[in-house]
Specification:
The strands form 11 sheets. Strands 3, 4, 6, 7 and 8 form a 5-stranded antiparallel β-sheet that branches. A 5-stranded mixed β-sheet has the order 10-16-15-12-13, with no helix packed on it. Strands 29, 30, 32, 33 and 34 form a 5-stranded antiparallel β-sheet that branches. About 5% of the residues lie in helices and about 45% in strands.
């Protein structure tokens, strides 16, 4: 039933529309008028920041203003698009590009979203601003410095000051550089700059550079160690305390060049960059000093020179004497080596010291063969050596201070040992028949040690039989032997060399 009624109503409505019904129905709502548009913000200004711009504006009547829309464009005739919004009559826009021109407009917006009139456009170009003191020098010893100013295009005025709020800093016509007087007192000085532009904008962020004012240098301590008498090859450590790093420090004394010291923490209680300068110097050949004053010099990074400092003790260096050279090392026999060297030239010569070793590492800790006090003695024969053995030699020149210098190392090998050549033995009975007179040919062995005469009552004499005599002289060739025993005696004489080898002569028989 309800469905039929609905269909009838729709049909009647349709008929009424077709028949062009003239019925007028009055609205029950009152007539609504469109709101008055919000006025345009005025006094739009811009302050330049570090790749940023801060926009500020005013409104005569803020009633009904919910927020503001900020528009930007690349040109005055370009399309302005919404860049940001702000609840307050100012806004800082970040991430702006250097040397690119931006145009901005601002419009107020009602709560319902209706936007008012847009402000007059303002433009801004973010300059790549900077200041540089004394061409980026780190130090200065003068309070008067030159400040280079880079403000980009359109700069008209500037201020510089050590005060970041520029209190009492005069506004000056823009120039690319300006002289500036730093405040008194050594230390790091920070100089700030503010730039003003033809379009009315100015920089608001901190543009600054820093430089260290350093008007004096000083040395608070200067020493060297060890302080004992030294010689060529010794190492001296110099230490200079200045209290500031990055300077130049040297140590010097008469007869030596300047020795550079470095602020690198070499002293035991120092760390790098602490103003303690050290240097390790090895005394070279030819440098000598006798109770010499040692001076420390220091110039800081700003160019200030400190008053010369003298070490509290004097320096004595005994120079190493000129070394001699071994000119020949020759094996004379199985047990002898002859060493010859050049003559020493040291004015305070005291002696030669000849050392020997089994290896080429011959030092003053090796075996000392001889101490020779005569400058003209330049030859020495080493004896009692082993056969077929290599020996190494070095000669040290020693001066009156006990300072020595070693020669080159040279060597030789003793000759290979062979058994001695036997001699020929002969003998006769004395006229009184009390003794046998024995004689033999002389040995020519270079390494001769002795003759040894043996006897027994039967043939076949050896070194195990009775030893009659030991004759140490190779020049001796006769001996008398008193025999009270058997009527017949057999003799044999042996030649021994220094290495224990021996050779027996012919065997003879003598009868009373």
């Amino acid at each position: 039933m309800h469905t039929s009624f609905g269909r009838i109503a729709i049909v009647l409505l349709a008929l009424g529309l077709v028949s062009g019904c003239n019925r007028h129905v009055d609205s029950l709502d009152p007539v609504r008028e469109l709101p008055t548009p919000l006025e345009a913000p005025f006094g739009l200004s811009v302050t330049i920041g570090n790749q940023s711009a801060t926009l500020s504006w005013e409104m005569t009547n803020v009633s009904g203003v919910a927020y503001y829309r900020i528009y930007s464009a690349d040109s005055i005739d370009g399309e302005f698009v919404v860049r940001d919004t702000s609840a307050a009559p100012s806004r800082t826009l970040s991430n702006l590009l250097y040397n690119r021109e931006y145009f901005f407009k601002v419009a107020a917006v009602r709560t319902g979203g209706a936007e008012g009139l847009r402000s007059t456009a303002v433009s801004v170009r973010i300059p790549a601003v900077a200041i540089v003191i004394n061409d980026n020098q780190e130090f200065t010893r003068s309070r008067s410095v030159r400040v280079g100013l880079n403000a980009g295009s359109g700069a008209s005025e500037f201020q510089i000051s050590e005060d970041s709020v520029f209190a009492s800093a005069p506004i000056q016509n823009f120039a690319t550089s300006a002289q500036f007087e730093l405040s008194e007192g050594d230390g790091t000085k920070r100089v700030y700059a503010r730039f003003y532009y033809n379009d009315g904008s100015r920089t608001s962020f901190a543009i600054f550079d820093a430089i260290t004012l350093d008007t004096r240098a000083q040395i608070t301590a200067f020493t060297f160690a060890p302080t004992t008498t030294m010689q060529t090859g010794d190492v001296i450590t110099f230490t200079l305390t200045a209290g500031e790093s990055k300077g130049n420090a040297t140590a010097t004394f008469a007869g030596a060049p300047d020795i550079n010291l470095y602020d690198d923490g070499l002293s035991p209680d120092a760390t790098a960059g602490d103003g303690v300068y050290t240097g390790r110097w090895t005394i070279p050949v030819g440098v000598a000093a006798s109770s010499a004053e040692v001076d420390g010099k220091f110039t800081d990074a700003a160019g200030n020179s400190a008053i010369l400092a003298k070490a509290p003790v004097l320096l004595t260096i005994h120079p190493t004497p000129q070394a001699v050279s071994i000119v020949s090392t020759v094996a004379l026999s199985t047990y002898q080596i002859e060493v010859i060297w050049s003559q020493a030239t040291a004015s305070n010569f005291m002696s030669y010291r000849l050392y020997r070793a089994a290896t080429a590492n011959v030092t003053t800790s090796s075996e000392l063969l001889a101490t020779l006090p005569s400058r003209s003695t330049v030859l020495y024969t080493d004896t009692a050596l082993n056969a077929d053995t290599k020996y190494f030699y070095r000669v040290y020149v020693v001066d009156s201070f006990g300072v020595s210098a070693g020669s080159n190392v040279d060597s030789a090998r003793t000759l290979v040992n062979t058994a001695p050549v036997p001699v020929t033995l002969a003998g006769t009975l004395s006229t009184d028949s009390s003794t046998f007179k024995l004689s033999w040919t002389q040995s020519g062995e270079v390494d001769f040690a002795s003759y040894r005469l043996y006897r027994k009552a039967s043939p076949g004499v050896t070194t195990a039989d009775q030893l009659v005599a030991i004759i140490n002289s190779a020049g001796t060739d006769t001996i008398n032997d008193f025999v009270s025993g058997p009527a017949t005696v057999y003799y044999k004489i042996f030649v021994f060399d220094r290495h224990g080898l021996s050779a027996g002569s012919n065997e003879i028989q003598l009868t009373k």
